[in-house]
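We read letters as residues; the fold follows as tokens. Both lines appear below.
***
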Amino acid sequence: MKHLAKVEDLIVNGNWVIPDIIQEVIELAGFNVASLAEPDVTKDDHLVWTPDLGGEFKVKSAFEEIRVKREKNSWHSHIWNSHVPVKTASTAWKLITNAAAVDVNVQRKGVHLASRCYVCYTHEESLSHLLWHCEHAQTVWKWVASKFEFRLYCSSFTEVISASKSRSPMIKQLWDVVVTSTMVTLWHHRNLIYHEEKAVNFNLCTARIRRMVRASAMLITGHSFHRMADRRIMTSWNLLVLLLKAPRIRKCWWTSPTEHTVKINCDGSAIRNPVLRDWFYFPGCFGRFSARYVEKNRCQHELYG
């Protein structure tokens, strides 16, 4: 096949002459050799890189072709976004994907050692236990959930991160920040115990979580639903409630109706008090609504002149 590097080598007297081994390759690519168009011998050969829409070879498209693609996680948007700091997101991502140097992961690499949680001393050390099932972690998560008035048992990241589905965009973004900050805090707390021989300290963890949340507060752009629960949650973190953005004011021009036609003004300036004008457009209004009735899901109005 080395000497058949050009298309012109597969053309003899204006017809396709394709060896069997190349026909198999073409058919495996999804093409029918019998349905190929007649070759145009007047044009020169040129390479076409099919993975790229422009037909040009690019390293990026080649990498996309050869790399192993995994299924997208439904929770990645809770980590990589504009309201979670990059440093916090990167550490949280390592913890979620089990890419931290805990005893269980070290044992999997062939290192023989006795494993014990450095926080509770009752179970072997794994990220699942350290972040979710350790007694100290459960105490911290209960404190976090109480700040949001949630009642949930924190046993995994997917379960915890979905607790804010029915809340306002502001609370959803705040919950993403708090969850990632709590995970990172629990990991740093473990490192303090392991490397610096510090004691288990609940107040140290809560203070660090508060500090990380306050530092990320300016990144939160979601608005509130004007509920008292939103205000209580933001107050518990010493944060301000973000209100809806003011609507944009647009100018519009009034045009008179056609002759023998009455026009009803029902724009924003006439809400709950529409007026009627005729085609002369004399000062004042032609009529107003004196009453409004609702009957069988239909609104009926009574006019007076």
User: Anything to note?
Assistant: The radius of gyration is 34 Å. The chain has a mean pLDDT of 83.
